[in-house]
């Protein structure tokens, strides 16, 4: 092949520090475009972003020139800095230390897009902790109940 071709869909999810319900609708209206801009500037195509008060989901195409760990560090750091700079919430805002980033096959994009779009309805029935635990199970990642570490 004379050219490299990639198409790596990522479903990323991360929460506010200690899962505090700080991401109210007025914050989301500023936060989501900011995150979209950050990802786009990194050469990623953003399909959708949505969430609830304590976490967000992002579906995007990963730029193969960028490491997912560097990208998430940049997005989370820049967005929390901007939330604090603009005083969008009364207390200091921070994201949790980690994140989830799961590859999505092309055939599942519509399903994941719908899942992300329906976050408010989804979380009337399930907490973020339950949702994240389900992600871990679906992706074959086991969480150690004693220390919360992920075992592969």
UniProtKB/TrEMBL annotation:
InterPro entries: Transposase_17, Transposase_17_sf. Coiled coil: none annotated. SMART domains: Y1_Tnp. GO terms for molecular function: DNA binding; transposase activity. One of its GO terms (biological process) is DNA transposition. Residues 5-119 form the Transposase IS200-like domain. This is IS200/IS605 family transposase. It comes from Larkinella terrae. The gene is tnpA.
